[in-house]
TrEMBL record, chains A, B:
Ca(2+) binds at residues 99, 167, 169, 199. It holds the Pfam family FAA_hydrolase_N. Substrate binds at residues 101, 115, 206, 210, 308. GO terms for biological process: homogentisate catabolic process; L-phenylalanine catabolic process; L-tyrosine catabolic process. It comes from the Bacteria. Mg(2+) binds at residues 219, 223. Pathway: Amino-acid degradation; L-phenylalanine degradation; acetoacetate and fumarate from L-phenylalanine: step 6/6. Its EC number is 3.7.1.2. The keyword Calcium applies. This is fumarylacetoacetase. Residues 98-356 form the Fumarylacetoacetase-like C-terminal domain.
Length: 367, 367
């Protein structure tokens, strides 16, 4: 099955009238870990205390859960709760949130749209994974309604954004902190797992505000993540694409951290894009190395995301900005409707698989 | 005295072998609030729980402390601990950190330095307080050593920053949260107090990385704040400067939140600049209104800073970038030394007063 023992993502759930606690998804049920493993770390309302335990504990716990679910299930069964009896919560307390810009196709498309006729990539793009800090306090769990933001759309123009967009991304969740003053260690020693992320964007607000200090209110109103954090250990890995020029020493890949994840973006139930994560230029280990090369520390709960995932084909673009070429080539939906950007009432679902593994979905409606 | 009953800033202190707790500075002593007021909220190791109580509680507590210190002091006296017997800690847990760009002189100077011959201000600057999110996890308390960051200084060039700089700023600390989806309420209902802030900056790293998503590693390695948070209530207020064009309705000033704070920047003990906060174009209430106009929520512990404070005179500039015109006109120090940017071993102190009130200082050495 697609949520089998080779998957086992972690989340935070609650039953009516009870406090949130940590569980693992198995089939259409959630395993109550505090009860099943007799470990109080899972009675917390976030994954942070467990994530802080580190890689050896993550592996041992996963093995223990796999054994419980494949051995004599008569004991474990009573701790499996049907998903329709629980509510899912934001799975971890977000410390700092960083968003990167790792897709060559996405960065090139945006360059072509905003600066037609000139070189689409900035001079720094092939030398480092460009990134910026986003707002941690507005990271919300899948299903949370998203209010269309108001803002300045140009000189003397204020109102609701007319260019509300999505960005289909993968997010990486830090478990083990690092000290200030030195770069972090190996990727797999710090990063606990992966989430699906929708970086909601108001393109008109962003366009007016972002020079010279980058995106701010065009992004900070909401960022949605999937409720299930897939452990790094569960993900099939592939080499990343060839990089030219060869990156600086601190960015050289020491292991295969390319991920063969296939995403789908659904707008009101229809698939409008199929972005391939395998096409990403900068791999997540390179993002982490870059993030800390200046001595910035990591905290448990840090979240860093890939930036919009876009492939080379038009149907592989992970934002409406690219899919509709800034609204000039609207997407056609069944029933004759079209969309340049999102309208009120629209629902966006981003779902993903990695081989036989599902990463679930992140959804949100514009309300 | 300069730390009298009209001042009473809050901080977090510890005695050897004891846990950090909340105190108020009075003269050269710190008042142990949990002991003096019999209130467990002050036994926390951060100001956050107290700050979350809100404006009425802040006012009542301040009045109570003032009464204790001016009435029969025989009881209170035993809870006053000499400052040389305590260690000062980061006074609050930083939720999100936002840095603005509110000084017309600073933004104009940077424009002139980086784009000589063209209009120094970007088209958005007079319409909104430009800002971006910084790294909350590397906000540190005054006295914490700052390691010179390494990074990419240009294509194929990696090494320690050769342009390590400071930015003299005021930071505003949020006590009362706001809900996602609507703008925050009145400034004084949310903001607890003010801190001095040094936004350490690596100008060469920043210059290569910042297009198009803004500053990242050039800033994220360290941000220092003063240990004492001055309550908003203690600060003398003045009108802000005239704004032309008139800002959008949500940014119109509803009260005087200009602050008559005078700063001094000391490099190795010598005053190299005297930035006047009264010259800031955008006032802190406007920063807060802008930060939340898109529906972004506030959390207890959010920190937003003014950006570099620079006045119209050359000696009033709050960064070395401006004081030395990007290193081309080095500052002359006593003994014949000069500085374009910071050298290893240099110590920077930023101190400030508001009328008779002192805001203390934030210091840091490059190690």
């Amino acid at each position: 099955m697609s949520w089998g023992v080779d998957n086992l993502p972690y989340g935070v759930f609650s039953r009516p009238g009870q406090r949130p606690r940590v569980g693992v998804r198995y089939g259409d049920k959630v395993l109550d870990l505090a009860a099943a493993l007799h470990d109080e770390v899972f009675a917390a309302s976030s994954l942070n205390p467990f994530m802080a335990r580190g890689r050896a504990a993550w592996h041992d716990t996963r093995t223990l859960i796999q054994n419980k679910l494949t051995g004599d299930v008569s004991v474990t069964e009573r701790h499996l709760i049907p998903l329709d009896q629980v509510r899912l919560h934001l799975p971890f307390e977000v410390a700092d949130y960083v968003d990167f810009y790792c897709s060559l196709e996405h960065a090139s498309n945006i360059g072509r749209i905003l600066r037609p006729g000139s070189e689409p990539l900035q001079p720094n793009w092939r030398h480092l994974p460009v990134g910026y800090h986003g707002r941690a306090g507005t990271v919300v769990v899948s299903g949370t309604p998203v209010r269309r933001p108001h803002g300045q759309l140009g000189p003397g123009s204020f109102g609701p954004s007319g260019k509300l967009d999505i960005e289909a991304e993968l997010g990486f969740v830090v478990g083990v902190p690092s000290a200030m003053g030195s770069p972090a260690g190996a990727f797999e020693d710090h990063v606990f797992g992966v989430t699906l992320l929708n970086d909601w964007s108001a393109r008109d607000i962003q366009a007016f505000e972002y020079v010279p200090l980058g995106p701010f209110l065009g992004k900070s109103f909401a960022t949605s993540i999937s409720p299930w954090i897939t452990p790094l250990e569960a993900l099939p890995r592939i080499p990343g694409p060839v990089q030219e020029p060869e990156p600086a020493a601190y960015l050289r890949r020491r292991a295969d951290w390319g991920l063969d994840v296939s995403l789908e973006v659904l707008l009101n139930g229809e698939v409008v894009a199929r972005p391939p994560y395998s096409a990403m230029y900068w791999t997540p280990d390179q993002m982490l190395a870059h993030l800390t090369v200046n001595g910035a520390s990591l905290r448990t709960g840090d979240l860093f995301a890939s930036g919009t995932i876009s492939g080379a084909e038009p149907g592989e673009r992970g934002s409406l900005m690219e899919l509709t070429w800034n609204g000039t080539e609207p997407v056609k939906l069944a029933g004759g409707e079209t969309r340049g950007f999102l309208e009120d009432g629209d629902t966006v679902v981003i779902r993903a698989t990695a081989g036989d593994l599902t990463l679930g979905e992140v959804s949100g409606s514009v309300g």
